[in-house]
Amino acid sequence: AVGIEIRDVSHHYGGRNGQGGVTALDHITLDIRPNEFHALLGPSGCGKSTLLYLIGGFIPVQSGVIETARGPVTGPNPERGIVFQNFALFPWKTVLQNTLYGLEKLGLPKKEREEKARHFIDLVHLSGFENAFPSQLSGGMQQRAAIARTLAVDPEILLMDEPFGALDAQTRRVMQEELRSIWQRTRKTVVFVTHDVQEAVFLADRISIMSARPGRIQHVIDVGFNR
Ligand code: ADP
Ligand code: ADP
């Protein structure tokens, strides 16, 4: 498994010649350990999503270094899979087609791709819904499909941006339990963004508590008992 080394990372939006704009992240240093479930916890605007997108390679690192076993992060890579709050499924593709999507780039034979896709659909308890379109599914089921699609590509690192934020409280609870059980079976390195303290404590091994203006990590807490 792969950890993530974040060294002295700062990030600014807007402004000119270093003046004005927003300091979204201010000198963040953090080691995310291989196989750990790490939560980034803090109020809206503290830079959680910015840090997650930097790790994902979706926005370029302006200052400092983010490194995995593969080397410095310079862009998106299948090593790092992401699940968004709003599911981001293709509405014109079925659950199976959505799950196959990432696999098509991996160059596996068709039969193997389909077996893999079905395996992950089963893992997230969506068997029987392979041919359903996202609009025919509940929010929780759509998020399961999004998780299956990301896991199918077998990323070493799973990045999650408030994945259950759009769900009702009861579905959210079910999904938290499912994610914990999926994580216990796959032991991926997970970075999970949330502003929900209970969610962080329930899921994470360690929690980075962030504060805003400028975005900083105030404490890293070991929740240990989730292991
Ligand atoms: P979050 O759910 O992480 O709090 P926000 O609602 O703050 O997200 O932001 C949603 C989107 O808008 C993100 O893509 C973010 O990058 C962008 N965004 C947030 N704040 C600003 C801003 N001041 N100017 C432009 N884009 C912004
Ligand atoms: P969080 O995920 O904790 O809500 P974000 O990383 O979305 O925090 O945002 C951190 C800060 O950066 C906020 O002040 C937000 O308004 C600002 N911000 C985020 N995205 C953009 C953007 N694209 N342009 C300008 N400001 C942004």
Automatic annotation (TrEMBL):
UniProt keyword annotations, A-Z: ATP-binding, Nucleotide-binding, Transport
Gene Ontology terms, MF aspect: ATP binding; ATP hydrolysis activity
Domain ABC transporter per the UniProt entry, residue ranges: 4-227
Entry similarity comment: Belongs to the ABC transporter superfamily.
Protein name per Swiss-Prot or TrEMBL: ABC transporter ATP-binding protein
Species whose genome carries this gene: Xanthobacter dioxanivorans
Residues of the full protein shown: 16 to 242 of 277
